Amino acid sequence: MNNKLTFKSNFFMDLFEKGEIADVYEKITYLENDQSLYEATKATKNTNEKHKIYTIALVPDYLNLVLKNDKKHVQKTYSQNNLGYAIRIKNIVNLDGYLKSQFKSNSKVIKRSLTRLESCFNIRYQIIFGSITKEEYGFLMSTLREMLIRRFAQRQDDNKKIKEWDLILDKTFDQIKNKEASLFIIYDNEKPIDISLNYHFDKIMFSAISSYDIDYHKFGVGHVEMIKLVEWCLKDQYDFLELGYGDLDFKRRWCNHIYNFKYQVVYNQESLFIPIFAKMELYKLSLKEYLKGRKINMIFNIIMEKLSFKKLKELNEASDFTIKNISITESVGYEILSIVDPETEDYMYLRRILNEFLYTSQEHKDYTSIFKISENPNTFLLKGKVNAQQITFKN
Prior knowledge:
Blueprint: E1 6-10, H1 11-18, E2 25-30, E3 36-39, H2 42-45, E4 53-59, E5 63-67, E6 73-88, H3 95-103, H4 107-120, E7 123-128, H5 134-154, H6 160-163, H7 165-177, E8 181-188, E9 191-201, E10 204-212, H8 221-235, E11 240-245, H9 249-254, E12 257-268, H10 274-293, H11 296-317, E13 321-326, E14 336-340, H12 351-361, E15 369-373, E16 379-383, E17 388-393
Parallel strand pairs: 1-4, 10-11
Antiparallel strand pairs: 2-3, 2-5, 4-12, 6-11, 6-12, 7-8, 8-9, 9-10, 13-17, 14-15, 15-16, 16-17
Helix pairs in contact: 3-4, 4-8
């Protein structure tokens, strides 16, 4: 079938990333209350459809797509074997209650991520939604890209968003200015340590691309990001916080609405051969969904996720240094050569070690220093107010 005859759409991404809806639809409503979140303009309504067959995939189950008021189109809707992950904000009374209902006894661990991060660093949060300079935009997007590269290199995995980065960079600035997108940032002083790029459509926010500085991994920065995004959605009375598709344990733990996407095939029944072509398209989709239903793709995703975490664990276990906890009084006897700054390029390899020390000792970064020991150039002293550690690198 030629391109003029057929139209295929990833509805989810077209809606949130591009704000595009197939011209065959009159409006989009919420399924539970029929409240409209999109209606075609008069000009769009009067436009003749450009295609004869529309295959619309990845429609969230809480949305209803309404065809234009004509009798020539037939709409077939089926369930997809693709899981979607969302937080239904309207079902949340308050954040504390939600964390308890989602995480049960582990809710204290999740909240500890926030309190420990804020007690060890000078943390501040920023939401950019509608106003941003080119300079700030360039800096934040460049930082997010570097975070993604480091994070996926650590996992020894690929990230397709990096391949699309130039396109994302070109369009997102205007989307932020138009309040179609936003950036959420967690700062340690003036350094971004977590950035989330979000898309907005009506009262739905889609957390599309996010990453964090892997040197802060111990603090569960991803959980802190989610806490703050849920807070934002509660405050601004959003209906859904979307995490999209892609089966991850992190999404399963956070989301109170895990659903199957729908797909629709819409075709012009007045044309002689179009119904035949449409049935062929339906057959292909049915076969694809059958294979998904056999969990073939999910088994593959689970295997890849386990391999990824195994690689990460192996990298963390293969440490090339030893740690020795010492008393603060014992540290006085060390011959100190110089103080080193882990924010400089020469000593950036000490950042993760410092942050893990801060986490376990609950010291604050402002009152913790790293010293190079004179008698052994491979040994460093981490010293806080009440705790100290000796770090020795292997030759």
